Amino acid sequence: xxxxxxxxxxxxxxxxxxxxxxxxxxxxxxxxxxxxxxxxxxxxxxxxxxxxxxxxxxxxxxxxxxxxxxxxxxxxxxxxxxxxxxxxxxxxxxxxxxxxxxxxxxxxxxxxxxxxxxxxxxxxxxxxxxxxxxxxxxxxxxxxxxxxxxxxxxxxxxxxxxxxxxxxxxxxxxxxxxxxxxxxxxxxxxxxxxxxxxxxxxxxxxxxxxxxxxxxxxxxxxxxxxxxxxxxx
Length: 233
Hints:
The chain is α/β, with parallel strands linked by helices. Helices cover 51% and strands 16% of the residues. The protein folds into two domains: 12-183, Alpha-Beta Complex (2-enoyl-CoA Hydratase, Chain A, domain 1); 188-232. The chain has nine helices and seven strands; from the N terminus they run E-H-E-H-E-H-E-E-H-H-E-H-E-H-H-H. It is globular, with a radius of gyration of 19 Å. 32% of the residues are buried. Residues 1-10 have low confidence and may be disordered.
């Protein structure tokens, strides 16, 4: 809750648009980092809405760039993925390249008019960025293997079926605003803790994860007791 007693939601300061046709560039990295800065600094927002769109011809992602820029891009995506705000993305048109990589960092994914997911082959292979890791982590090895080895294009219905999208609608902006308001009632730090547990569940052994889950449970119990004590005063 913010200082006025209302739940924080999304705001224009925590919104961003990413076009599928953009090549990797320093300005694109800067835009992702700037969004993270705004989310972390915001006192009014617990959700970020990112609009992914693509209507132009397919670009050769990431383009003619050096590994240093690729590294900066991957770090920006990781920062976005772990930021405390709930990240809602809407997809209109084709989602490939930078839009696809941002999609895979999001918490809730909405398909809109003409939405489809494109994992293209360029220069004889699929790009091997950390989207590969996220696809395997989110879809499982069997489904991700076919996408990563051979590339493919998925309809919105198929993307929903396998879990790349969470919902399809004719009015993604309205649904994103509704979800931002709902997610705004959650505690951003608690969203971040649960996201981290989900992200690490597939790659960390049970014994190693147990302590982290117990710590999260203890944190939640303490907060509940504190809220209860405050209510009885």
